[in-house]
Design brief:
alpha/beta, Rossmann fold, Dimethylsulfoxide Reductase, domain 2, 4 domains, seven-stranded mixed β-sheet, six-stranded mixed β-sheet, globular, binds ligand MGD, binds iron/sulfur cluster, binds molybdenum atom
């Protein structure tokens, strides 16, 4: 049976089968992966039968110990306590935290549930931690945000690709096949597996990419590579950008970033020489307190070279989570309504309210962003109850010890999950839900293509789908049941209607068209005549702003929020390894993956190790102003000497997020996961 991998936004096509009762997986001929999967995709079925998989609701009794409970008891209890919190503290005292792994149907219904059944403005999701900065930059520049505004397969014909802060050789291995023929220019403080395959590797200090991008733009203009005709016809705002970039001569950019001027020249010349070139950004440039401006600076570079909206060239960002794209379009983001509409736009409110059959005035406005929401839990005026669907913030949120304290301060924490994640372990009520191979739905991949997720088998006894959980809660909160369909197709049809006319218009996409194998990229509006073919390539004729032009953004460099000091002289940056996914809640339950990457490490340059008395294989204490992480030292002579790296997939005292500082980007509210000041010292277990 054809479906897609449960993990990342590449959404590799898979074929599921059953052998001796076990689920088997193999890659399909789907164009993004054509016959390949990464190790996580190959082993995904084993999470379906994880030994500690949740199979019955759990509620915590007076003595604080969780015990199994029936569904009616669990849902009645949640509804009763939500009503009590709401009666005492108001509707905004109940909050919802969603995830970019949820199907479109779940994300849509979760947003509707929050606004109607709970009447709360306090809903946001983990996508805020993921690529909200590039989304904000793309919306400003192009008038619409679709991670890749072109199909992945277009990359295969590129001559040069600049990859800034992305490590797809580990985070999306099958994507690398499409990059094989291009010369890669990789911008990463680490010599990653991706950088090893690059024609040119620029190694800036963490948090300095904005200066680097300004330096590259400076060179592009100074060397006569500005595409003047394109800039005049298809863009606005170049002069204001140049008035800043003019001051970023390459030697100045070198001083700030550590990237030699000669390498900056080489990078620009490669891009400018190519007939088909792409600029792609990942979390490395986005997860900063200036991530939006940094992504914008790379967009500026792409615009100056005339790449976006030209066939065979472009700018894009590599969306991360399975439904990272769809998850940010259908209303679980606090400032949005379905169809990628703004919740403060009166016309959008009226449209969506009509589809929902309510008065527009009854819809709440925007609430707090993800970290601000977590930070406010249990405080005066903050939410007192939280429902979590599809995230594990105890491990993945910045300043994790503080976030864990805030979660503990709640009157009620409810977590819907299929495994006992670290966050579920803290919950008052845990609701066991179905997994990918047990449910129907749609996902929107990094190229804006809407895909069908199909059920091979029913969920185990005692387990419900997220849609059933939302329905059960809504009805108990006094909502009419028909507002919360449990059939994914019915939810999708409502989503189509709600998205019609919005930026992410799905109204012309149907389950039947997807079943027939059509490749449908949004926007795909409903038509009265021949069906709309979808839009694999955006911007070929015009950008999505009313005047059809792209906007340069006049940005300038600023330092990371936390400078290094004598006491904390190193930059810590964080990210991913191939064999673990996100907070690890799923992949840490797969034996093969744990064998490949079973514990947290801190990557350190040998000179740095010598300076601080560290040895390969030894445990070290990495500490920032927030707290300390205990990690095993891994020496790597290709790393910068001023930087250490930790993956964030591990729990307990191995959480990289015990270190990170929640300095937020002013526009996207994205936290600064990618740089903070630390020291590293040998760690001895206290006896
Ligand atoms: N194996 C695996 N694959 C995944 C995931 C996973 O958890 N595991 N998660 C998925 C998700 S949700 C996402 S968002 C994507 C993320 O995919 P990527 O963006 O590729 O992943 P990261 O490892 O977070 O960051 C990429 C690189 O940024 C570098 N970096 C750190 N700081 C800086 C900096 O200041 N500047 C620059 N230029 N680079 C910097 C890091 O060294 C790292 O190599 O991966 C998806 N795929
Ligand atoms: N230091 C540092 N921290 C980071 C990052 C970083 O680079 N560095 N990256 C950030 C990024 S990009 C991301 S995307 C976040 C991700 O971090 P998280 O939001 O914690 O993501 P996951 O680990 O995927 O958590 C998903 C949880 O939901 C469950 N789940 C999966 N699918 C479903 C579903 O359909 N329904 C329900 N109810 N549950 C489901 C899983 O079992 C798991 O427990 O981490 C962020 N944190
Ligand atoms: S690259 Fe992503 S979608 Fe493909 S198999 Fe690996 S985790 Fe799954
Ligand atoms: Mo992400």
């Amino acid at each position: 049976m054809a479906t897609h991998c449960p993990y990342c936004a590449l959404q590799c096509g898979t074929l599921l089968g059953r052998e001796h009762g076990a689920v088997t997986v193999r890659p399909s001929a789907f164009p993004v992966n054509s016959g390949r999967l990464c190790q996580k995709g190959w082993t995904a079925p084993s999470v379906l039968s994880a030994p500690d998989r949740l199979r019955a609701p759990r509620v915590r009794d007076g003595d604080g110990r969780p015990r199994p409970a029936g569904w009616d008891e669990a849902l009645d209890l949640v509804a009763e306590r939500l009503r009590a919190v709401r009666a005492e503290h108001g509707a905004d005292a109940v909050a919802v935290f969603g995830g970019g792994g949820l199907t479109n149907e779940k994300a849509y219904l979760l947003g509707k549930f929050a606004r109607l059944a709970l009447g709360t403005s306090q809903i946001d999701y983990n996508g805020r931690f993921c690529m909200s900065s590039a989304a904000a930059a793309a919306n400003a520049a192009f008038g619409v945000d679709r991670g890749l505004p072109f199909p992945v397969t277009d990359l295969g014909a590129a001559e040069v690709i600049l990859l800034a802060g992305a490590n797809p050789a580990e985070t999306m291995p099958p994507l690398m096949r499409h990059l094989d023929h291009a010369d890669l220019v990789v911008v990463d403080p680490r010599r990653t597996r991706t950088a090893e395959r690059a024609a040119l590797h620029l190694q800036p200090a963490p948090g300095t990419d904005l200066a680097l991008a300004l330096g590259l733009l400076h060179i592009a203009v100074a060397e006569g590579h500005l595409d003047k005709e394109y800039v005049a016809e298809r863009t606005t705002g170049f002069d204001a950008v140049w008035s800043r970039a003019a001051a970023w001569w390459p030697e100045r950019a070198e001083r700030v970033t550590g990237v030699p001027a000669a390498e900056q020249y080489e990078a620009v010349r490669a891009l400018a020489r190519a007939r088909r070139a792409y600029v792609l950004t990942g979390r490395g440039v986005e997860q900063h307190s200036k991530g939006t401006d940094t992504a914008a600076a790379f967009v500026n570079l792409a615009l100056a070279l005339g790449l976006p909206g030209r066939r065979g060239s472009g700018y894009g960002t590599l969306t991360g989570q399975g439904n990272g794209q769809g998850g940010r379009e259908h209303g679980q983001k606090t400032d949005q309504l379905p169809g990628y509409r703004s919740i403060t736009d009166p016309e959008a409110r009226a449209r969506v309210a009509k589809v929902w059959g309510v008065d527009p005035g009854s819809l709440p406005g925007p609430g707090r962003s993800a970290y601000e929401l977590l930070d406010a839990l249990g405080t005066e005026g903050g939410p007192r109850a939280l429902l979590v669907f599809g995230s594990n913030p105890v491990v993945s949120a910045p300043r994790a010890a503080h976030v864990t304290e805030r979660l503990a301060a709640l009157d009620l924490l409810v977590v819907a999950d299929f495994v006992p994640s670290e966050t579920a372990a803290m919950a008052d009520v845990v609701l066991p839900v179905a997994q990918w191979a047990e449910e129907e739905g749609t996902m929107t991949s990094l190229e804006g293509r809407v895909l069908r997720r199909r059920a091979l088998l029913p969920p185990p006894a005692g387990v419900r789908t997220d849609l059933e959980v939302l329905h059960g809660l809504a009805v108990r909160l006094g909502e009419p049941g028909h507002r919360y369909p449990t059939d994914p197709r019915a939810v999708f049809d409502e989503l189509r209607a709600a998205s019609a006319g919005g930026r992410a218009d799905y109204s012309g996409i149907t389950y039947d068209r997807l079943e027939a194998g059509e490749a449908l990229h949004w926007p795909c509006p409903r038509t009265s005549g021949a069906p709309h073919p979808g839009t694999p390539r955006l911007f070929l004729d015009r950008f999505a702003h009313p005047d059809g032009r792209a906007r340069f953004a006049a940005v300038d460099h600023r330092e990371p929020a936390e400078p290094v000091t004598a006491d904390r002289p190193l930059y810590a940056t964080t990210g991913r390894v191939l064999a673990q996914y996100q907070s690890g809640a799923q992949t840490r339950r797969v034996p093969e993956l744990n064998e490949a990457a079973g514990e947290v490490f801190v990557q350190v340059h040998p000179d740095t190790a010598e300076r601080f008395g560290l040895e390969e294989g030894q445990l070290a204490l990495v500490s920032s102003a927030r707290g300390g992480t205990v990690a095993r030292v891994r020496l790597d002579g290709t790393l910068r000497t001023d930087t250490v790296f930790l993956p964030f997939h591990f729990p307990g005292r191995g959480r990289a997020n015990l270190l990170t500082r929640p300095a937020l980007d002013p526009v996207s509210r994205m936290p600064e996961f990618k740089v903070c000041a630390v020291r590293v010292e040998p760690w001895a277990e206290p006896s």
